[in-house]
Amino acid sequence: MPDFYHKLSCVKIAGFTIFKAMRYGIYYQGRQSIILDQNKLIDNFISAFTYVIEPAPILHKFSDKFYTNNNSLIVGQSLGFNCLSDVRTFDLNFNSATRIETFGAGTNLQGKIGLVWSNFIGAANGAPYKPWAGLMTFNAVDGRTLFNNLTITNFNEQCGVKNYVLATNRDNDDAQHPVMMKNIHIYGVENSSKIWIHRPNLDKINIWDCIDMDCDAMKKALLNDLDGSFLGEPGTVIPQSEFEWGSQKRGLGDFRIPKEMLAAPNGSMIPPNQTYKYPGIVRDENLCQYIHDWQAYKCHGIEHRVLLIESMDPDTIRRRLSPVAIHVNNTFLDLINGPQDLILRINNNFRVWIVNNDYFLKNFRIKIKLSRRVSTKWPSSVFEINEFFFHNRKS
Fold first, then answer.
1. DSSP symbols for 272-324
2. Cα angle for residues 157, 162, 168 (degrees, 5° grid)
3. For 322-337, b where at least 16 C-beta lie within 10 A, e where not — what string?
4. What is the pLDDT of residue 153?
5. What is the mean pLDDT of residues 330-355?
6. Which of 108, 137, 132, 124 minimizes the C-alpha distance to 46?
7. For the segment 135-179, what is each residue's pLDDT rounded down to a tens digit?
8. Which residue of 248, 293, 313, 337 is surrounded by the most CB atoms within 10 Å?
9. What InterPro entries would the database entry show (predicted)?
10. CA 113 to CA 342: how far, in whole Å?
11. Which residues contact 144 (CB under 8 A, 6 or more apart)?
């Protein structure tokens, strides 16, 4: 790279036509914010994938880095695609194939993907020597993504496989940063093929990764359609965070609610079914509809935001505070694990999904000793909430 590269605040990739890439059409990983503009991405397995890196979240710094995709054409499967001859090959040597291999969408994980939920991470993930889509560090504190004036066509079921416009990064188990969309032009795209949110990876529930419950990323993704050009009317999409609530194998259910939240003033236990009505992210049953094909809720007339809770204690990388219970309006209860364990280090940053003018109680498993920071930086608009904080007296 030229010497001045490291002085740039952003990088622009523009004017490319990329056709039938068997893995990634555009793959970017770098310290600079990224702008994709006026590209034609056709018949690629994943059309565009980005990792914007640094600063490390343990520094508690906001960077305001971004990923923008403008004025581009994204085609899922063109009319000239041949289902028999245009197939993915695996003729790379074993090590190379393992590192560069992509993830797919849909129940069989074979569907092509146009756009991937944005990834902002604290440091490089080791590619090309490590898996290109994998994660080897904590996710960055902030990062904003905008998809604007995109023409998207031919994402549906073809060749016996359903393809998707937007999907989560299955290999990032900790966080999917929020995505905004506007001025989207859609042709030949079935509603069922617009979004795919993967389920949490069960094999990550182990002492070395997410410990004793589901990782957060596939349950904490947010899409905000600003003008309704993608969803049909302005609104948000949120995952089914309560998926398999009550499952011991996922470590999720009433048995994980911090006991202090279930304690009455006289010391008696409050039955869990008297403390909340619905598990999962706060939503309105009249304004949100569960879309089975997306594994997510589509909401209109209700505005979701991401609230970031950070432990600022000196021992924040050594002492686990989760699970964190988020109790909203005495109606919704969500459980948050926080980032996975990385080489015996914990990052106590928690992403909470909230809505305007609501009040919520958050309960930590153990006490935050000194300080915490609560912030919402995305999107930039007036947003009011009432927050109540409670934790175990034990440290």
1. GGGT-SEESS---TTTEEEETTTTEEEESS--EEEEEEEE-STTTTTS--PPE
2. 145
3. bbbbbbbeeebbbbbb
4. 97
5. 79
6. 132
7. 888 888 889 999 999 999 999 998 889 999 999 999 999 889 999
8. 337
9. Fibrocystin
10. 29
11. 64, 65, 66, 67, 118, 177, 178, 180, 377, 378, 379
List the one residue out of 152, 218, 224 whose CA is nearest residue 184.
152
Q: For residues 49 and 116, is the Cβ–Cβ distance under 8 A?
A: yes
Tell me the per-residue pLDDT of 187-242, one tens digit each, with 9 for 90 and over.
999 999 999 999 999 999 998 888 899 999 999 999 999 999 999 999 999 999 99
Q: Which residues of 9-36 are buried (b: 16+ CB within 10 A; e: fewer)?
A: eeeebeeeebeebbbbbbbbbbbbbbbb
Token pair, residue 387, equals: 């927050």
What's the rounded mean pLDDT across residues 243-253? 95
pLDDT in tens, 68-106: 999 999 999 998 887 877 776 666 555 555 678 789 999
Q: What is the model's pTM?
A: 0.89
Angstrom CA distances, 230 to 78, 166, 359, stand at 20, 11, 30
Please tell me the distance from the alpha carbon of residue 133 to that of residue 128, in angstroms, as a whole number.
10
Neighbours of 217 (CB within 10 A): 32
Please give the helix or strand (H or E) that residue 371 lies within, else none. Answer: none
Continuous segment of H or E residues that includes residue 384: none
Query: Which tokens in the block code for residue 67?
Result: 């990923």
The strand order across the sheet containing 66-70 reads 10-14, 33-37, 66-70, 144-148, 179-182, 223-225, 235-239, 296-299, 288-291
CB atoms within 10 A of CB 252: 24
- Residue recorded with tokens 């990550």: 204
Contact 100, 158 (CB under 8 A): no
